[in-house]
UniProtKB/TrEMBL annotation:
This is GAF domain-containing protein. One of its GO terms (molecular function) is L-methionine-(R)-S-oxide reductase activity. Pfam families: GAF (PF01590). Gene3D superfamilies: 3.30.450.40. SUPFAM superfamilies: GAF domain-like. Residues 49-154 form the GAF domain. InterPro entries: FRMsr_CS (IPR000614), GAF (IPR003018), GAF-like_dom_sf (IPR029016), Phosphatase_reg/MetRdx (IPR051330).
């Protein structure tokens, strides 16, 4: 395994290598919790300047905390509330440069300043969302958005 700082390729090449590692790590395993646990761990090792990475799973009409890396987090998020609930409801990636300016932001970690949330959808069914927070404002670039969306597409094959 490598961390982003150890590999000197372009951002796109780094994400391509990360996805290859994800596929190798999850090959043959279909357990949702095991695969999401390893995916969050892999992202935590790869991404720099983040303070939380993990999943919220769609259950009982809302989002429930799933596997993650970081400080304890909010357990339940209603659909349409905060960045995660909005992303899940609209089934679209949301990149927030400054979470303090996002209407209805749910502050689980006061150190978070920016966020990206990508929905996990398989067979047109919402599985949940990938949520990544950073203590740095404007942390997530368009290259990160594209790379993380490709990561989630690869992950959806294994869940």
């Amino acid at each position: 395994m490598f961390t982003k700082m150890e590999y000197q390729g372009t951002t796109n090449e780094q994400y391509d290598l990360l996805i290859k590692q994800l596929n190798a790590l999850l090959d043959g395993e279909k357990d949702l919790i095991a695969n999401l646990s390893n995916a969050s761990s892999l992202l935590n090792q790869f991404l720099v300047n983040i303070n939380w990475v993990g999943f919220y799973l769609f259950k009982e009409g809302g989002l429930v905390l799933g596997p993650f890396q970081g400080l304890p987090a909010c357990i339940r998020i209603p659909m349409g509330k905060g960045v995660c609930g909005t992303s899940a409801l609209n089934r679209k990636t949301i990149v927030v440069e400054d979470v303090h300016l996002f209407p209805g932001h749910i502050a689980c970690d006061a150190a978070s300043n920016s966020e990206i949330v990508i929905p996990l959808i398989k067979n047109d069914e919402l599985i949940g969302v990938l949520d990544i927070d950073s203590p740095i404002k404007n942390r997530f670039t368009n290259e990160d958005k594209e790379g993380l969306e490709k990561f989630v597409q690869a992950l959806q094959y294994h869940i």
